[in-house]
Design goal:
The complex is a heterodimer. By secondary structure, chain A is mainly alpha-helical. Chain A contains 18 helices and no strands. In chain A, helix 6 crosses helix 8, helix 10 packs across helix 15 and helix 10 runs parallel beside helix 17. The longest helix of chain A has 37 residues. By secondary structure, chain B is an alpha/beta fold. A 5-stranded parallel sheet of chain B has the order 2-1-3-4-5, sandwiched between helices. Chain B starts with a helix and ends in a 14-residue tail after the last helix. The chains are: A mainly alpha, B alpha/beta. At the A-B interface, helix 17 and helix 18 of A face helix 1, helix 11 and helix 13 of B.
Chain lengths: 475, 344
């Protein structure tokens, strides 16, 4: 049941109307049932996985406070870790590692037939396993009291707006909201509707309309077309932003209409001047998760520069692998890890002191860095979007062969990119200028009305209503 | 208190402004006759598609005063257009209401526009080509505004067993009832695309992908495969609904058994054609004011009359229409709807 499907258009009003009429206890039971229906709409068999993961973490969470420090406590944590990472390993990475091992053995002279299983990737597994894992780790670290109510806990794991593509919520933020009566104020309704509108705008106007340009650019069939590939990379940059930020925005909006406040997942990723700020603006719930449960446990930035670089590298490598079971994602993670390290190195050694104090020059330098960072991000998207290394090689080859001026066909593609992404860029600029505020509060009602009208009519007239799936569902 | 008042004022300004924009957009983009003249003049079938082009012209014409009465109106798809247009261009006693891929569902959704043209007798040229094929969704969604009739259309769709296949069409039609900007979005897309292309062409010619033409054998196979018994009940249901509406509106209807190029026929398509013909005959017997004319009672086209697999050349169409109208004038056997002595 995609957010941009007819079945969801029928599902959500029914759920919302019933939800509003129920008392708190029954609201949670009802939301849990609705969440399971939502999840089962992909494949009812996936429900067993989420139920299993929920049951294990609920039980471990309850047992941890009753268990004294020592090996028993560690074993409980390991049970949760192995269950969740085991599910991920089997359902997401088994085929990848089996194939890679087979390829490696073949390369060194041991021809083996890799064990392959036909396993369907359960939608959203990467999101909810990380969410439930964070709960157990927080309880283990005694930073969080376990949730005694199984319904509340199960709802925390399965809350349908953010179940299949985030934001990845923390128990410390969600569980209190689930337990307490939810007051839905007028500002929640207006903010919720705004996030839903913005989300659909980003998905059906920006992302789905740019998909054909991106697909053509990354196509490896037909003659080499350097300009087409270049335009495809830029189109993909806005497609993936529209697709993923759009999903998050719809999730945040629907949750807000129900009285829940979810984590902001995107700010202004293409208006940043360095890779660190990029990760503070892009998929924030994942990057903060990786920071809190991987980077800091590895030692973070304590223990010298070498350790810091190693930790950054490992965190981003695993962050890349989280996105998908393919070597291109690993390389993408390594690329971003390298960017973060390079940024740290340059920050420490290459201070551009002559610009300090010169306001205009410093703004111009900042602008140059933003443009440069966007180009580097696009290099990352090139790796990310390529279906394989062979395809990546061919696509890079196409880019290298870019000669002469673009043709009229390229100009049309460029106009499409501008037409479909201009407001997505302005929205990022608005968030940037308002120091990360993503709602409309405080903006003149005239501007609000124009913005809402432009987005509404863009969806209505130019929206692509083909029910195309969200890119991040595959992760 | 002041803060609360400010918030209310902001909310009111926002709502009024939004409503103002909505009204302005509606008037400017879809709600005036001049803009439709502009769209019809600027857009071509190659820009938006044949059926969409028909919809733009029909919308443009909807702003014109209704024409005076006329004896005959040919209603149907481009096949009907190919047959009757050469005659209608030269003779005032026949008018046309055609659109590419028009199916019986479209007859129902366009019924008021059809009746508005003031014809006494409607001519429908129908065969298994129209009644045994699944209607094109892209065409169905271009229906004009139905008003409250949309509820009856939902009911009819359910009765015709089409809720599974065509509910998305009905959702689009329903949204289009509220927002005609949505229904006619292909117009704005077409205009924008033309503007992009014009801008880009200043820099050089567009590299269009060469059009791939399928062989005659492939097209015959495709057409044959599109004709199946499964499509008959849905189409027959809506044909019956339209005929009932026509009779209720005081129109007579002549249903002419249609055909396509004989080279497409196969034993299976012939069986389906017989089935469709039988159903149309049964239907016409049941409805007063409706007459079915089988091919055997009038005339058939030969292979050489077709310039493709489904459309006849103008000369053949003119000859057919002339002969038909002469026959109708000399043998006014079609009773007007509601007359008590109607019989063949």
């Amino acid at each position: 049941m995609l957010f941009n499907s007819l079945s969801f258009a029928a599902f959500i009003p029914v759920v919302y109307v019933i939800y509003l009429r129920l008392p708190l206890r029954w609201q949670n039971v009802f939301l849990l049932a609705a969440s399971y229906v939502f999840y089962a709409s992909w494949d009812w068999r996936f429900l067993s996985l989420i139920l299993f993961s929920t049951a294990v973490d609920y039980w471990v969470g309850l047992r941890l406070p009753q268990t004294a420090d020592g090996p028993r406590r560690t074993r409980l944590l390991l049970l949760s870790l192995s269950t969740n990472l085991g599910l991920l390993g089997v359902f997401k990475y088994f085929g990848f590692f089996a194939q890679s091992l087979g390829d490696l053995l073949t390369a060194i002279g041991f021809a083996v037939e890799p064990v392959t299983l036909r396993i369907v990737l359960p939608v959203g597994i990467s999101f909810y396993t990380f969410q439930t894992l964070s709960y157990t780790v927080d309880v283990y670290r005694r930073r969080l009291e376990p949730e005694p109510d199984p319904v509340n806990f199960a709802l925390f794991v399965a809350f349908f707006p953010q179940l299949v593509a985030g934001p990845i919520e923390r128990a410390a933020r969600m569980l209190p909201q689930i337990r307490a009566p939810r007051l839905i104020m007028r500002r929640d309704i207006t903010a919720g509707l705004w996030y839903v509108l913005a989300g659909y705008y980003l998905k059906v106007f920006v992302a789905d309309n740019l998909a054909p340009v991106a697909d053509a650019g990354f196509s490896t069939s037909g003659p080499a077309d350097g300009w087409g590939t270049l335009l495809g990379v830029y189109a993909f940059a806005f497609q993936i932003f529209g697709d993923f930020a759009g999903y998050s925005s719809i999730a945040i909006g629907i949750a807000r209409l129900m009285g829940f406040h979810l984590t902001t997942n995107f700010l202004h990723p293409y208006i940043v001047s360095n890779p660190r700020d990029f990760w503070r603006s892009w998929h924030i719930s994942l990057s903060t998760w990786l920071r809190d449960y991987l980077y800091i446990p590895l030692g973070g930035n304590s223990g010298g520069r070498r350790r810091l670089y190693r930790n950054l590298f490992l965190t981003m490598l695993l962050g890349g692998l989280w996105h998908g079971a393919a070597w291109t994602f690993v390389v993408w993670g390594v690329f971003h890890g390298s960017l973060l390290i390079a940024h740290r190195v340059s920050e420490a050694r290459l201070r551009v002191s002559w610009l300090q104090g010169a306001d205009l020059a410093s703004k111009a330098w900042w602008g140059v860095k933003v443009v440069l960072m966007f180009q580097l991000t696009c290099v990352g998207w090139l790796i990310f979007r390529a279906p394989s290394f062979t395809a990546l090689e061919q696509i890079v080859g196409n880019l290298a062969r870019t000669t002469g001026l673009p043709t009229a066909t390229h100009i049309v593609s460029a106009l499409h990119i501008l037409f479909y992404s201009w407001l997505a860029f302005l929205l990022q600029l608005m968030v940037f200028r308002r120091n990360g505020r993503t709602d409309l509060e405080g903006i003149s009602p005239w501007i609000q009305a124009v913005l809402v009208a432009v987005m509404f009519y863009s969806i209505l007239v130019w929206g692509s209503f083909g029910e195309s799936p969200f890119i991040y569902f595959q992760f | 208190m002041t803060k609360h008042r400010d918030r209310r004022r902001s909310a009111l300004t926002f709502i009024l402004m939004l409503a103002g924009i909505g009204i302005a957009v509606r008037l400017l983009l879809v709600g005036n006759p001049w803009i439709w003249r502009f769209y019809a003049a600027k857009l071509r079938p190659a820009d938006i598609g044949w059926r969409q082009y028909s919809a733009v012209r029909k919308k443009r014409d909807s702003f014109l005063p209704p024409p005076g009465k006329t004896p005959y109106l040919a209603v149907g798809s481009s096949q009907t257009g190919a047959i009757f247009l050469p005659y209608a261009d030269r003779h005032p006693d026949l008018r046309m209401f055609t659109a590419a891929a028009m199916s019986p569902f479209d007859f129902v959704t366009h019924a008021q526009q059809i009746f508005r043209l003031g014809a006494d007798t409607l001519l429908l040229y129908l065969s298994d080509f129209d009644l045994a094929r699944q209607p094109e969704r892209a065409a169905l969604v271009l229906a004009p505004a139905q008003g409250l009739g949309i509820i009856a259309l939902w009911r009819d769709l359910a009765r015709a067993g089409g809720l599974g296949d065509y509910s998305s069409v009905m959702v689009e039609l329903t949204v289009g009832e509220l927002f005609s900007e949505f229904k006619y979005r292909f117009v704005f897309r077409g205009i924008a695309e033309k503007a992009f292309i014009r801008l880009a062409e200043r820099l050089g010619p567009l590299h269009e992908a060469p059009a791939t033409r399928s062989s005659i054998e492939e097209r015959i196979a495709l057409l044959r495969s599109s004709i199946s018994r499964e499509g008959i009940p849905f189409n027959m249901y809506f044909l019956e609904r339209f005929l009932e509406q026509a009779v209720a509106a005081g129109r007579s209807v002549i249903v002419l058994e249609g055909q396509y190029s004989p080279i497409v026929s196969s034993p299976e398509t012939r069986r389906i054609a017989e089935d469709v013909s039988g159903r149309m005959a049964t239907l016409s017997h049941r409805l007063e004011g409706v007459r079915f004319v089988p091919r055997s009672e009038f005339r058939s086209f030969s292979e050489s009359d077709y310039y493709d697999l489904t459309h006849v050349v103008p000369e053949a169409g003119y000859a057919y229409a002339t002969a038909l109208l002469e026959l109708l004038r000399s043998h006014p056997a079609i009773p007007s709807a509601g007359s008590s002595d109607g019989s063949d």
